[in-house]
Amino acid sequence: MKNPRTRKMDWQGRVIIPNIFRKILGFEAGDILDILYVKDNDTLIIKRSEANDARCNICNKEEHSLNFKNLHFCSKCAEGIASLTSG
Fold first, then answer.
1. Is the pLDDT of residue 10 over 80?
2. What is the mean pLDDT of residues 27-55?
3. pLDDT at 49
């Protein structure tokens, strides 16, 4: 295993993912993560969910109608951005 880190779980079951791993994996605050249990080797796998790609990058609404440079915007936020540039 490369770069193992030991973390203590708090009383609510939360574990902090070290910053180095968040950067490597592209995890950001507010991201939806998939947590999978692999019974064969008693392992948890944490990965960034594909559901993140279906959300607006501004309001996090589960709809996007505009994509720009790998960013997703719902129709309401896209209209707000457009109103800022047409003034």
1. yes
2. 85
3. 82
Amino acid at 5: R
Q: Which residues contact 34 (CB under 8 A, 6 or more apart)?
A: 45, 46, 47, 48, 49
The terminus-to-terminus CA distance of the chain in angstroms comes to 55
- Beta strands 71-73 and 33-38 are unpaired
Answer yes or no: pTM beyond 0.70: no
Coil, strand or helix: which one is 25? Answer: helix
What pLDDT is attached to residue 2?
A: 64
**Which residue ranges make up each domain of the chain?**
1-52, 55-87
* Interstrand relation of 71-73 and 66-68 (parallel, antiparallel or unpaired): antiparallel
Domain formed by 1-52, architecture: Ribbon (2.10)
